[in-house]
Write a structure and sequence with these properties.
Helices cover about 65% and strands about 0% of the residues. The chain has about 240 residues and is mostly helical. It folds into two domains: about 130 residues, no CATH class; about 70 residues, no CATH class.
């Protein structure tokens, strides 16, 4: 508890002196860009670098006090009611990418900028800015994201897509419980998508166990096996191989 108690003090640091003139200007610029973004939806990526810089200044200078708000998060809730995540992404771009990259990011868009941040955080001073900016300009967004993922993990990523469907509130408890149970079997590092696939594979295996399609049963069991953690795969093989021979 020494580390924690050492942070407690009777004399908390004083907040920065509020520059009302500068704060009014910066807050006005943020509102101007956000309003412009709504009107110019097709060109919305072109000012994200400027917006990220202003947001960082609001946080550092505590300009949100000008509006009698309690904290920076409350300020973001007003300006980004749908999701504060985008605001933090833009700030991360401003804080982590070198100036050379930020000047050219308007050409590639903020979504690709987020991927560049991942590389900049890892490589720091060794970040190959020119090469990755060139790739960002030349490649479609999803292909560029896969390229960054491959660079960070050393592995090819499997194509993916987002699937939407409606669920009633009464259905949520059983679905959440099923996904939670699957996560306990697969391990906490598995995504909810993997957990859902395991549930579906288990259903298909049970539905085709007696008198169903042997090929569907084989397919579901194969997917089920691949989803298991390595130690469970090994235990499974030890269980079936002697019987198969």
């Amino acid at each position: 508890m020494i580390g924690l108690t050492s942070l407690v003090t009777e004399y908390p640091p004083m907040p920065p002196k509020l520059n009302r003139r500068r704060a009014t200007f910066v807050l006005g610029k943020i509102d101007e860009i956000l309003a412009w973004e709504q009107l110019k939806d097709t060109e919305r990526d072109t000012k994200f670098v400027e917006l990220g810089r202003y947001l960082c200044e609001v946080r550092a200078g505590q300009y949100w006090r000008l509006e009698s708000l309690k904290c920076f998060d409350e300020f973001l809730e007003r300006r980004f009611p749908e999701s504060r995540r985008k605001a933090y992404y833009l700030m991360s771009i401003h804080e982590n990418l070198p100036l050379q990259a930020r000047k050219q990011l308007k050409e590639v868009g903020w979504a690709k900028g987020i991927e560049l941040v991942k590389l900049a955080r890892r490589d720091r001073q060794n970040f190959d800015c020119a090469t990755w900016l060139h790739k960002a300009r030349q490649m479609p967004k999803e292909d560029f994201k896969k390229e960054v993922e491959k660079e960070l993990t050393g592995q090819e990523t499997e194509p993916w897509e987002i699937v939407y469907f409606k669920l009633y509130q009464s259905q949520m408890p059983v679905i959440e419980k099923a996904v939670e149970t699957a996560a306990l079997m697969l391990g906490s590092d598995r995504s909810r998508g993997y957990c859902l696939e395991m549930i579906c594979a288990d259903f298909l295996a049970g539905a085709n166990l007696d008198g169903g399609s042997p090929m569907t049963l084989l397919f579901s069991m194969t997917r089920f096996y691949r989803l298991l953690p390595r130690h469970q795969q090994e235990a499974f093989l030890l269980e079936i191989l002697p019987k198969a021979s």
